[in-house]
Fold:
Amino acid sequence: MELKSVVLMVGFFLLAAVGYKGVSIIRKNDMIIRTNGISTRHVVSDQICWEISFPNKASTIKEAQLKFVEDKEKVLSFLKKCGFSDDEITQDPPGIYEVCERSIDEVSKKEKEERFFKTEGCFTIRTARGEMVQECLSKTAELFEMGVLFY
Structure:
């Protein structure tokens, strides 16, 4: 019985020593930053993914389709003008929805119903050129001036 106890104790000591050594190695390799208050760190990204969506609203499906195609061409030409290549730009599937909004007129207290079509298109830009994305984002007011609503 004594021999088993001694072997068991030696085993526990060896296990503790190996565990302590492993934890100390992990702690050395772990990078810990402690701050008091606010701190920031600027990191340059190696891959950027930017989605630009453009919604529309029209009373008929034909108007919605025409407005969608027109805005799609404007957004695509804007992105090309910014310098993005075809490989960096992908078009997501468009969405089209028929919407029925109901409201009550405050004066006449009658219920009004408005039906319209809503379309939404989206381009996704994937690039490693972060400066170009930042520069293009600062020029997005040009899209608004062309009559394109986006987010």
Q: What stands out?
A: The two ends are 76 Å apart (CA to CA). The CA atoms of residues 21 and 134 lie 47 Å apart.
